[in-house]
Write the structure tokens for this entry.
Amino acid sequence: MLATSASGVAIGSLFCAPPAFADSNGVVAAPTATPTATAEPPQADAQTQPAADTSMGGVFRRATPVEDPTGGAYTSPTLLFIPAAAVPVWNVRVITSLDMQGPTAADRLATGTGLGFQPGLGGEVGLPAGFTLGAGTEWVGGDVSPTPISGGISPYVQLRSHLLGAADGQGFQLGTSVTYKFVGFQGDPGEMEFAFSGQYRRSRYELGLQGVIGKDFATTDADGEVHAYAIYRVIPELGLGVATQVRIGIVSQPGETTYDVIGGAIASLTLGRWQVGALGGESTVGLNQGQLGGLGEVFGTVRF
């Protein structure tokens, strides 16, 4: 069998070898090897690349974001700031908070005016096309009820939109929002606020600047606000920095305060879908003009 196989190989080589030709002088030229085509790797065709799923099912499918140790651009290290980016589609974010201020306004949960507490509970759901719908029992850093009946609770409804920014949450992010605040449960028609939020996010630091215009529906009152924060991330999950909010009355009624200031140090820790944060500083909200009180705030959020 080996001899037969070797003969077969020799015969096959004879028939497969290129023929030899003699020139005009009778010299036989050596056969020239036939070049063998080298297979090249197939080039990627743009038409064969997976395209974004723009079908109705793809647009409305629940998003599963890549875990971001910084929490993602749909969060912020302080509740004084409205995030620019949207909560991932059909994800739900629950927010709990507790403010402590002393001296305090009479409309907070307090005995006297020594120290007041203001709890908060809110939630957000991510919608298609970069929208987020939120609602809660109070608007942190905003107006409170004009009477002590509701304990300072000021319900709100908010719709925000992500206008510009990379999907990974890094770099410059721009968003806008509209918020309706009931300002207590005493039949007050409430007020509306329009805001633009800009954030610049990097793995080690993060900056935010926000402008707000508000209009009260019960009176001619109107105001403007500026919110800002800056943090440095000691590790990707932990950010330390400062935050502030300044409100200036554009139109005010006689006897009302014409400005309010909140400011202090902030810390934010993110562990997967969980986030806890705190603010320690000072506030004039709810106090007489020129009076300043100590402010402490803790909050926690989770995304499902």
About this structure: Helices lie at 2-16, 56-59. DSSP finds two helices and twelve strands in the chain. The domain at 60-303 is CATH 2.40.160.40 (Porin).
